Amino acid sequence: MNNVHPIRLPKKAGSDPAEARCGAVLTVDLDAIVENYRLLRLKSARAACAAVLKADAYGLGAARVGPALAAAGCRHFFVAHLDEGIALRRVLPPACLIYVLHGPMPGAEAEFLAHGLRPVLNGLEQIDAWRALSRKADMALPAALQVDSGMARLGLSVAELAELDAAPERLFGISVSLVLSHLSWAEIPEHPANVEALQRFRALRARLPAAPASFANSSGIFLGADYHFDLLRPGAALYGLAPQAGRKNPMKPVVTLQGKVIQTRSVPAGTPVGYNGRFVAHTECRIATVGVGYADGFLRCLGNKATASLRGYEVPVIGAVSMDLITLDVSAVRGDIAPGALVDLMGGDAAPPDAIAVQANTIGYEILTLLGARYHRAYRGGAEPTGEQGDLS
Ligand SMILES: *Cc1c(COP(=O)(O)O)cnc(C)c1O
After folding, report:
1. Which domain holds residue 128?
2. Ligand 1 binding pocket includes 86 (Cβ within 6 Å)
3. SUPFAM superfamilies in the record, alphabetically (predicted)?
């Protein structure tokens, strides 16, 4: 045939070809994220509420999460890297402020200006570099300052603050729009390090130019009003993770991961399943193979451990997790299981990210941020523009 016509596939109304092609669908409920944002904002009578969108909004897609939160009135956003800020700037309304937590790498300062981003300055080197840029630009440049309240990770130390006290001109040309610090024990409310960090933050902040302050991440918000200051800074709780260890999770679930069955088979008792026969069928057994594996962030340590759900039936993951596949014992499922049948692997009828994290000996943050690039991300909802929020700039 010399005349090749492209084949037209029948298209159902609303059907997404990418969703049909993929091996697994990650559904992100933007309305639930917005509800979580509102719940967190209401935890404080006076503080504004920012959103932390680093690591592609914890793996859920900053380009979709950001605009949904902006439409819900969020005006302050945090990312970790300059590149994340540049990407987020393209999708947010100009009125939204974007802070880059890591501050400028040497030589990259001017890019913050070019892209309308604010650095968080974490030490004297970054302060000096930002001041140098302000001189070159011949104008005052806004930035946040981070102080170290006990985590020893990022931020000005007590010694550096003393150096600043001795040479206050190092801050000339920097208009400090926010002073922030980060808690290292916030998810354990009774831990004494929280109060110590709070006291340190208050003391350190008093030595800097007066500016709005931001201290509380998701868990910190639940430590009470003393921790709220002017701007809340949640990430995890927006995405449905529990802010307090061992307590009921007040946040709405946000993610559902569904894998597709590729094929099913029945095997007799004694059949080894998967690499190294790490599962051996003890009776006759029906197995469904699903196109999700450790390369998608379905951790290898979940082999013989995790449980999925197919049409409401619990179906255990049996054998090793492969790079691109898992095997499920679907013996308990009544009726046919057609290729393409969806199995809930996380959220939905399956365990939430926090529970999977416990099985994998990690935290929900790691489970979310490892969610694979091969998943098709389907978005539900998204807010219409509503309430505005006070300007902290
Ligand atoms: C990641 C991060 C947050 C958000 O923390 P969550 O625990 O996800 O709410 C806030 N502040 C800083 C400095 C962070 O690095």
Report:
1. 30-238
2. no
3. Alanine racemase C-terminal domain-like, PLP-binding barrel
- Domain match, 63 and 122 both: yes
Question: Quick check: CB of 236 below 6 Å from ligand 1?
Answer: yes
Q: Is 162 helix (H, G, I), strand (E, B) or coil?
A: helix
Query: Residue written as tokens 């298209």?
Result: 11
Among 385, 370, 364, 310, CA closest to 340:
310
217 lines ligand 1 (CB under 6 A): yes
DSSP string, 288-357: EEES--GGGT--GGGTTT-EEEETTEEEEEES---SS-EEEE-TT--S---TT-EEEEESTTS--HHHHH
Residue nearest to atom 6 of ligand 1 (CA): 235
336/327 Cα distance (integer angstroms): 17
Please report the atom of ligand 1 found closest to the CA of residue 239: 8
CATH of the domain at 270: 2.40.37.10
Question: Is there a domain that residue 7 lies in?
Answer: no
Which is catalytic among the residues 43, 54, 365, 375? 54
Domain-ending residue, one of 238, 264, 283: 238
Q: 282 with 217, same domain?
A: no
Is 275 a residue of the active site? yes
Q: Whose CA is nearest to atom 4 of ligand 1?
A: 235
Cα 234 to averaged position of ligand 1 atoms, centre (Å): 6
Does residue 101 line the site of ligand 1, with CB under 6 A? yes
Q: What share of the chain is helix, strand, coil (3-state, %, to 5)?
A: 30, 20, 45
37 is catalytic: no
Overall pTM surpassing 0.90 (yes/no): yes
